[in-house]
TrEMBL record:
It holds the Pfam family PgpA. It is found in: Cell inner membrane. The keyword Transmembrane applies. InterPro entries: PgpA, PgpA-like_sf, YutG/PgpA. One of its GO terms (molecular function) is metal ion binding. It is a multi-pass membrane protein. One of its GO terms (biological process) is phospholipid catabolic process. Pathway: Phospholipid metabolism; phosphatidylglycerol biosynthesis; phosphatidylglycerol from CDP-diacylglycerol: step 2/2. It is an enzyme of class 3 (hydrolase). It catalyses: a 1,2-diacyl-sn-glycero-3-phospho-(1'-sn-glycero-3'-phosphate) + H2O = a 1,2-diacyl-sn-glycero-3-phospho-(1'-sn-glycerol) + phosphate. Its cofactor is Mg(2+). This is Phosphatidylglycerophosphatase A. Lipid phosphatase which dephosphorylates phosphatidylglycerophosphate (PGP) to phosphatidylglycerol (PG).
Amino acid sequence: MTDTSPVAAKPQTLVWSNPWHNLAFGFGSGLMPKAPGTWGSLVALPFVPLWQLLPGWGYLLMLGLTMLFGVWLCGKVARELGVHDHEGIVWDEFVGIWITFWLVPEGWYWLLLGFVVFRVMDIAKPWPISWVDRHIHGGVGIMLDDVLAGVAAWAVMQGLVSLLV
């Protein structure tokens, strides 16, 4: 769910002057005029090989911490912008794509495949993701639809890993 109110349409100065806004807007990737969620997911992708160096439990711990942080961060920035969920807030895409790659083998082809699977889930929003997107608000709502898209993409990736590896 996006908001195109005048306040929501002009976060550019805050993104470059406020570190919380910069982080929520994916280091500026959320300012892209077309498909900010896709750009945010792309900017989050180079972190995946670093997270994959962690043991499985460490990666899972990182996911939990970034989700909790994201609830606070996305809620704070949305309130400061005076909107429900500005499309430029892409920290939720960062966490969603990181979920996609938990326990997925390393390799550029897995990164490419996981990126596509996550974007399909995030854009298509199959039930219950679509319900969450419409009915849950605040930081939890901003994060939860992308967390669920990440979990759905993770399940698809685990199926592909079991078939192809």
